[in-house]
Amino acid sequence: MAYDDYFTRDEYYKDKEQFFAFLKELCGKNYGIDGPSYLADIIMAGKLDEVLDKYELNISYFVYWLLVKYATRKLDENILDNPLITEKNLTDEIKWVVFSEGKIHFKPFVSSLSLLRGLPSVRKNKFYNNIYLGKALGHCHNYSLAFNQPDVTYVTALIPSWHSGIRVLHSYIENTKRNEITDVSRNLVFPKDEFNALVNPDIISEITNSEFQEDFEILKNWPKANPRDYLVDKPKVLAKAKKQV
Length: 245
Description:
Elements (H helix, E strand, L loop, with lengths): L8 H19 L10 H7 L3 H7 L4 H13 L13 E5 L5 E5 L2 E7 L13 H11 L7 H7 L5 E9 L6 E9 L4 E4 L4 E4 H8 L2 E7 H11 L7 H6 L1 H10 L2
Antiparallel strand pairs: 1-2, 2-3, 3-7, 4-5, 4-8, 5-6, 6-7
């Protein structure tokens, strides 16, 4: 069974705590829930075989999370200098890394705070500023739905996490015209096929911007509506919202 943070919360947190406790035993560090460098630590400490004896690791997710930490200013580009990544180019607008599973192209969604000065409102400035500084991490559902643009589809999926027993619920945006993924809360943009290869999403829902705008007229009558619940089970949430009218 794969545990996740929406449908099986108790099992998810129990398994996750055990996983990080095991890593602390091996490396003597408390990585908590956030520390993508620990796989590199394990490799350099010669402990990888011990981990693989107990867990099937998702190497792609480690690389993905390294890119997230780089793109959200949580760690500098040195985080990408580790045994997982064999080549990289961070100088061009379209950047790329190469690891055991292939080559991934990406770019930051918000590349500079200076670009925010021309935005017309304080609200938009705060929205993009939070994404740039990593303050949107952990709020993927809210930030995805807040990106109100035509020709986008809001996608919610379960994606594999650190090891094969863990999956996490995640929301992002697909730009249907450009065939690319904007991982809004994580400040990253990918070609769609490369993003899918990297995170292997098990898609739960796909809601177009026009559909969401229609639904919003119903949802606004129920302030307690949860964006995550809406993205996971739209019919159920809309039915509850209609009862509030």
